[in-house]
Amino acid sequence: MLHTVNKSPFEHKALETCLRFARQGSAVLLIEDGVYAAARDTAVAKDVQEALKRVQVYALKPDVEARGMQNRVMDGVRLVDYGGFVDLVVEHNAVQSWL
Amino acid sequence: MTEENAGGVAKRFLYVNRRAPYGTIYALESLEVVLIGAAFEQDVSLAFLGDGVYQLAKGQDTKALQAKNFSPTFRALEDYDVTKLYVEKEALEARGLTAADLVVPVEVVDAARMAEIMEAQDVILSF
């Protein structure tokens, strides 16, 4: 399963809920305001680090760059471009969008 | 402090920004309204709360997103005599940011001080 999260983790519960249901081996792709969750040293960084032990976490690079977060991405979170987004969709059996 | 001007009495305007840029249109729209309002020579302040602090983050590069990067526009506010920018201390800290990570000089204030600033306004516009 590929999960996508497009909301800021500081203003919404989408990421928290997603991580509660994301099973071992699934992938979480952070897009739009969801990419703020990929930053180091934030109030939610610990939750993401914990999630990285069981799921792959990706962040969409154009969204990361637009928000000026490109130098703050935590270790373990992989950046993908739009082509990478498509690859993730193809690789997984289903996509769940946590809007 | 209100002062007389050609159009009458200047009012104290506070623009409250609570949204991150790009994910929604609020941040850009707020900045547009601030720039339009600046022409009317009012006493203008801007507050950045919660995700609103992300509007001021350095290093924004929207080329791949193909959207307008409006963060440099904050540096032009000074030319419109809009110099009172207040940023919520708690919001910066939760996001691992400091004033040095922002595109313009700001005054970092705690929630209690921010509440005082809000209390002192005539008009508050929320985005």
Under CATH, the homologous superfamily of chain B reads DsrEFH-like
Question: Tally of extended strands of chain A?
Answer: 5
Taken as a percent bin, the fraction of beta residues of chain A is 15-25%
What strand line-up does the widest sheet of chain B have? Answer: 6-5-4-3-7
Number of strands of chain B: 7
CATH fold group of chain A: Hypothetical Protein Ychn, Chain: A
Measured on Cα atoms, how large is the radius of gyration of chain B? 15 Å
- Average pLDDT of chain A, rounded to a whole number, is 98
- Detail the poorly predicted runs of chain A: none
SS field, number of helical segments of chain A: 4
- Give the largest interface pair and sizes: A-B, 26 and 25 residues
Number of domains of chain B: 1
> In the CATH scheme, what's the topology name of chain B?
Hypothetical Protein Ychn, Chain: A
Percentage of β-strand residues of chain B: 15-25%
Order of helices and strands of chain B: EEEHEEHEHE
